[in-house]
Amino acid sequence: MPTPKWLTVARNEYRLQTSGIRGMRRQFPLIAACLLVAYSVFVAPRLLGVFVDDFISMLLSQVAVGLMQVILFMVFFVFILIPLSRSLQDMSVAPMETILAAPVRPGDVLMGEFIGKMPLYAIVAGFIAGTFTAVLQPIGLDAVQIILTILVFVFTFLSGYWIGIVVTALLRTRLSNSSRGKDLGKALGFVVALPIVGIMYAVIGGDFLPFLADPGKGGAIRAVLGLLPSSWGAEAIVGFAHNPGDIGVVAFDTFTRLGGLLAFFATTLWIGWNAADRAYSLEPTTFTSAVVKPDGAFYGAVRLLGGGGSFGALTASLFKDYSRRFENLSKLFYVVGLYAMLTIFLVKPREVEDLLWMPLMISPLFAAFVAGEATLRGKEVLFIYRKTPSGVSRFLRAKLLQSWMVVVPCMALITLVSMSMIPGATAADMLIYTGQIVLSAAGSVAFVLGIFLMNPAFTEKSANFMLNIQPAVFVSIALAIGTRTALRWAFPTWSRGAIDFYSTILQIALMWVLAAATLYLGKRKLSGLE
Known about the structure:
This protein is mainly alpha-helical. It has 2 domains: 5-61 and 79-199 and 236-279, no CATH class; 302-527. It is 78% helix and 0% strand. The protein has helices spanning 5-17, 28-47, 52-59, 64-88, 94-101, 106-136, 143-175, 179-191, 194-205, 208-213, 217-225, 229-242, 251-279, 297-305, 309-323, 326-346, 352-371, 379-387, 391-419, 427-454, 463-490, 496-527. The chain is globular, with a radius of gyration of 27 Å.
């Protein structure tokens, strides 16, 4: 009987994933399982002992089912996002061409790759489940309940990962046919994680448990989550917690819920396997000539802000190039959404000064996503400016102005909206603190632009890209903490409001000094680019 083609693909994928341990491929799953058992039984209970009482009290409370539904939904959704965000960031058609050229069905390739990677992801799921069951050990769960709890996590994770693979295949084949589609795919890959980040912040902030306890709002959320397969396993785990060591009491409910979870996993495998033949297809690409339309009023205003003439045209051109990419807009949406969720769920401002920290911390990240784009178009684009008369200076000034046009209005609007949430904030407070945030954000843009010119990142996959973002955020935090500490030490009798106000001014001044230095060094680097 011939070996199924998907099984052959799975073996090759497993060999590829374990290429670093060729001598112990067959023993690796057994060794990993033993290490997971040792971690769950001996290591995790000692590491997490401080959280046991609080977690058990929540698991036995009236919000236990809702809490477990949220936890398993989060991990289910995260495993969907893993292949989705990773694959959409690289929208080249080469992987699909390879699959279509192989003498096997695309469904067999997709299934084989999933089965080949399944042991590694099962280990990750087992590690997370082992951590969870270690916290539950003081309740007195028996061995069967612990094993079933681990299986709930494993099949929930694997179901999510398989769904993510299939959805990714469907999106790639639809979006890879045009440059606009590829750009949209990269944008989606960047912002799909925002909902799960919002749920995580809500849980950490402490407002989510009272929300779940509310019979009206919390009941509606639990009803919606109860329709998802991740919630079936959650209800079984809560049943174990209420009946530790007695699996017989909840045997029927456990059988139906876990059976439903297994049936869902098998059904998604079958549907995805058969849908992959349609997912992996390359349609003929049609080419149309681009038609350049006259600039509207907005780009006319951008040109005027640039002083008109050739420099204004250059500024408007850079703005067009930036705004026409969905990927760039998705980064702005991501930063604004991240700031909104941090403010809503984690930061509880009582005074104007409490809310000043968040814009100061978020503006360097905002600046990095906007100004850092200066080098991402590639070295060839920078060479064009370098070869033209005064091209480096003109490009530097135009990119700086274009970045300010994006970052400064957004940070001003964010600050005004945030301060409107504070009772007692006057119009003078809004004007003063918004001005401080605007000056700080403008300095951050100049600082980040200089860093990216000093250490160019020509692609987002380059290690320099993340390496450049880190000092931008770190310097802003260090200046904020350092200036406040220095003023408290030098002027111990000053009030908190005075220290925050003057330390912010000192921080802005130091940021502009650093920005001038990095811009000068970045200009020299660009002028001597080889």
